[in-house]
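Lecture notes, unit on protein representations.

Consider one protein chain, 523 amino acids long.
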Amino acid sequence: MGCLGWKYQLFCLVVLLSFLFHLPSSFSSSLSSISPCSALLHFNSSLSLHRSASPSYYASRIQMCDNSYPKTASWKEDKECCSWDGVECDQTTRHVIGLDLSCSWLNGPIHSNSTLFFLPHLRTLNLAGNCFNESLISPEFGKFKTLTHLNLSYSCFSGKIPNEISHLSSLVSLDLSLNDELLIETPVWKRVIHNLTQLRELLLDWSDMSSIRPNSLMNLSSSLTTLSLHHCYLQGKLENNFLYLPSIQTLDLGFNDNLDLGSFPKHNWSSISLKFLDLSWIRFSRELLDFIGNMKSLEHLNLANCNLTGSISTSLGNLTKLTILDLSYNNFSGLLPLSLFHLPNLSSLYLDNNQLIGPLPNHESGLLNLKDLYLSSNFLNGTLPSWLFNLPSLVTLNLDGNQFIGEIGEFKSNSLEHLDLGYNKLQGFIPRSISRFVNLTYLSLTSNNFITMLELDMFSKLKNLDYLDLSNNLVSINNNVTYTLPKLSSLILSSCNISEFPIFLKIAATLQFLDLSKNRIYG
């Protein structure tokens, strides 16, 4: 019986297409008659859109999905797909050669029979910052023979990385980082090293590489500029010349706490072109710290929690291009090196949780870009120098857990968002300039000798304040005025000698934690 009549023909076509889209990938991938635009539309229809699939993420090297939006929501069937958001076409052939759907709210699995794999001319594919529901990375990705850039990071993939990834011999950049602990087995890793000889960027953060021999890293492409293996469970000894990869500029081996770097030979360290170096949570010899001071190209240095002892090497003051320096959670002792406070491009300095002593320097030069200063949990003392209150870009100031004395000066800028001066020996009145910090979210002055009044003029403008701790100071309440802190969730006023219940708390709708213990409130 033939398909007579246009309605019945249409029905047959629908059934046929439905059947074809559910065929095994080995057969369906040969269906070259489906247009790229149709393939894209079908791929989009196989997924749902949820804002929660693209949450914002920030780490020391990575900032993702701060401005996510559903790119595919604007795709229209009656338009040519080369004009669609995230789609790039070759201007001559009109083949789809680029697909950037990063942070696009895509949610759902990608199966091997997905029409995504019907785009044979792709050169760049970016699906980062979505959630593909712990899908396996399909072997079909290995059929994109012309791919130079593949980014599947931060997208809820899981399981083993397929061997077919090593077939993408034209890859210049491969990013599979920040997924659900993808497993990289030794045979696949060997093929990646052997076949992907054009690689310049390789990022596998938070993958499981526990079975991989660290020394195999030395066999990677000599053109590699970025190697990021943060928290990859690497273990064993790594040859001490790993820093000498000829083209490397970004090297992140942080949080591989079972990795042994051994000792380091003499070398022309100034010839190393590294700009980003993260060796946090790794044990290595103290001499490396002295050598690093000769790497004049460094812009980001993270040596947090490396069990380093002794004084901080003054040679680090030679790294004039540094923007971020993290030496926190070590056992450094002695005085603060003054040279660190003269680095002209420094934006973040983390020296917290060490055993540093002495005062802050009386003078600094050029810290105009400093945004974050963490000196908490040391044994620093003396008064707070005036330059500390004049930093124009300061966002975070963390000095808690030291032995500072004297009064706080008036801040000249309005940029602070996080201020912690707790557990010191500071005294006097809280500076009124704090009331200008309209972006302040965290304020802790606990366990000092401050005198303050909770009053309208001081705190009413802090509309973004989430956490306020004035405990173990002398605080008085002005109940003659009422005001609200619309985002306040935690208020700690224990041991403040308060005799009245703060009336403004009656309308504190967002409050989740309140401590008024050890006061003189009655009635």
